[in-house]
Amino acid sequence: MQDNLNKYLTEIEILHQQQLYRKPITYIPISATKVLKDNEEFLMMASNNYLGLTHHPQVKKAAIKAIEKYGTGSGGSRLISGSHILFAKLEQALAEFKSIEKALVFNTGYMANVGTISALTNNNDYIISDELNHASIIDGCRLSKAKTLIYRHKNMTDLENILKNLPYSHTKLIVTDSVFSMDGDIAPLDEIVYLAHKYNALTMVDDAHATGVLGKGHGSVEHFHLQGKIDIQLGTLSKALASEGGFVAGKKILIEYLINKARSYIFSTALTPADIASSLEALSLIANDNSLVDKLYDNISYVQDLFQQNNIDINLTTPIVPIIVHSNEKALQIAQKLYEKHIILSAIRPPTVPQNQSRLRLAISASHTQEDLHFVITELIKLL
Ligand code: PMP
After folding, report:
1. Where are the membrane-spanning stretches (predicted)?
2. SS3 label, residue 206
């Protein structure tokens, strides 16, 4: 090995020693909740496919039709040649779904966060961010020239203490996940909006895990009845919307600004017709049929009841169930034992969660059957 690569080898060895080494595992997906590995069937409990729409016949058909009609690739970035007709339809549908003037599609939720935060804030500005916000928000803050201040998780006293010491007239952006990706809890958006109004701050909410879930699927703004009161609603097309991509929804002026300033929007080839067609179809299914989200919440209540019957005190408000076991080793051991039972439930370790907060993250889907859920919870409880 070349000497100048040695330091990477050392870092990898350290990761192994700390039980923090990670690598992707290849599966063959066969349905919304089942995958094959080495010719054996596994139950998927780690996917963000909350409504199971990745395998919905209409969604698949829409993607196939889009390829047949418009081809496979978009051929260019959005502002050069890649804005095919489906973008206009999806952006219109997203704006309506989110009850706001305009929406803008990015290539991923990650890129939407990074591009939006860094474009909206500059030298003399401030970003005020929840300590448990998603990595893509953190990276957006790092890329911005603004000063970032972190408030304790969902702690409104801490948020207010920060806000009251900042200059009233400077741009201040409060940014939060609505549903926290590794804890499944919900940010107090109504209180955040109140403080933002009091201290003249902008608000940005990341609805990656709320779209298709909270507020009959419309997201956190509908859940809290805050229509017109949140400046930027961000989302992803990659979770409940069963495809790939991210989006930002807000007032026309903000979207116009982002089109011209958000570098992750401007300098990357646009998503393919199949990506956009599948999320457009998924969105239309959610908008026209409450039963999908209802089924998800039936499953969430069912899991809640199972935990309660076993005297485990967990209050579930979203499909994300964190089982915190603290040690990296224990999280890995439980994940491995569940794997031996043909259940895939990932061990989440630092840096995804803080030190000593390693956990199993269970993700419930509308497509899980009650038998699936009963089996998983029974096996999981035996290992705790
Ligand atoms: N925000 C949150 C809260 C997320 O959990 C994720 C993905 N895990 C993202 C943004 C990024 O979305 P995408 O996967 O579409 O890049």
Report:
1. none
2. strand
Q: Tokens 């998927």 correspond to what residue? A: 44
Can you tell me the distance from the alpha carbon of 355 to that of 292, in angstroms, rounded to the nearest whole number? 36
CA distance 76 to 78: 7
65 and 46 in a common domain = no
Nearest one of 297, 312, 315, 295 to 380, comparing CA atoms? 312
**CATH number of the domain that 174 lies in?**
3.40.640.10
Residue 372's domain comprises 26-50+319-383
For 130-152, the pLDDT digits (tens) are 999 999 999 999 999 999 999 99
Same domain, 283 and 347: no
- The rounded Å distance from CA 100 to ligand 1 centre is 21
Q: Return the best residue to mutate from 181, 204, 241, 265 for the ligand 1 pocket (most ligand atoms within 8 A of CB).
A: 181
The pLDDT score that the predictor gives to residue 1 is 60
Question: Which mutation among 107, 134, 275 tests ligand 1's pocket best, with the greatest number of atoms within 8 A of CB?
Answer: 134
Q: What is the pLDDT of residues 5-35, one digit of tens each?
A: 999 999 999 999 999 999 999 999 999 999 9
Classify 305 as helix, strand or coil: helix
Task: Kindly report the pTM of this predicted structure.
Answer: 0.97
CA of 246 to the centre of ligand 1 (A): 8
Angle at 90 between CA 278 and CA 51, to 5 degrees: 45
| Residues 227 and 254 placed together within one structural domain of the fold | yes
Q: What is the largest CA-CA distance in the chain?
A: 62
